Amino acid sequence: MREIKVEWFGHSCFRITKDGYAIVFDPYEDNNVPGLTLETLQADEVIASHEHGDHNARKKVELRSEKKDSPFQMIRLESFHDDCRGEKRGFNIMTVLESEGIRIAHLGDIGCMPSPEQMEVLTGLDAVMVPVGGFYTMEPDEIRELLKELDPKVIIPMHYRSETFGYDVIGTLDGFLKAEDPVVTYDTNTLIVCPDMEKQIAVLSCPEQKS
Fold this sequence. Notes:
Blueprint: E1 4-8, E2 14-18, E3 21-25, E4 41-43, E5 45-47, E6 61-63, E7 73-80, E8 91-99, E9 102-106, H1 116-122, E10 127-131, H2 140-150, E11 154-158, E12 183-185, E13 190-193, E14 200-203
Parallel strand pairs: 3-5, 4-6, 9-10, 10-11, 11-14, 12-14
Antiparallel strand pairs: 1-2, 1-13, 2-3, 7-8, 8-9
């Protein structure tokens, strides 16, 4: 089927599944992100956008022993975790996945505007997972400018603070949203991305956390 399953596990951690093949992005270590504890996830592949503890806990992902062919074409784009070419926080990798014409991207902890060449690759996305809390990443107003240029169908916010989880120094989801935004709030952590989706900011529910 022409669809991709997106599951959010809090912070910037997602599992992307197509035709039984799963990729986990940015798993976080225990006792790292306040209010969140990541269960061990099963997948065929794990990708860390950069080597910080809230994004690179590969040990939290149990890779399946049976090797499958990935249905995804993958493009990895090198960027920076800050606005001074990595001097403060180092590098960041943005990843674009495509399968059967559906294109989604995980922007990691993007800290600056992509290059013109990268913007071209990131244009026309069906869905994008993007940090909206600022401080460690581009600030919310900068992210909105980026998204305005990219014009994805579905925006999936990540890397923000709520009343129950997240770093104190990053902003809340409300600090990113505007009154005119087409926000759809889901009572699940799962979204099925397909070609005919309406434009929206898809707010997924963070799954119940283990204490």
